Amino acid sequence: MGVAVLGSTAAALYRGNLPDLELDGPTAAAARDSVGEAAHIAERLGGSVGRALLDTASHAYTLAITPAFLMAGGLAVAAAATSWALIPRDLRPTENH
Q1: How far apart are CA 27 and CA 20, in angstroms?
Q2: What is the mean pLDDT of the chain?
């Protein structure tokens, strides 16, 4: 569930950070779907247009994935703190475990 939420957040931020692309409709839609598709399209286009598309998509991906990773880190810290708070202080492992 957490991976799905983080992935959806990153995808939404990627699309939101990707400016209007000067490509035809289906090509622009494919580039908005994922940074991988944008890289394939950029390779196919080549030249300065492809390089500009790849730079734009890479920048949008960086702006999208950074908050998603920060959310993941925050959730991990929150889970660790919750576990630490809920484990009884007098709990001692047995020899069998």
Answers
A1: 12
A2: 90
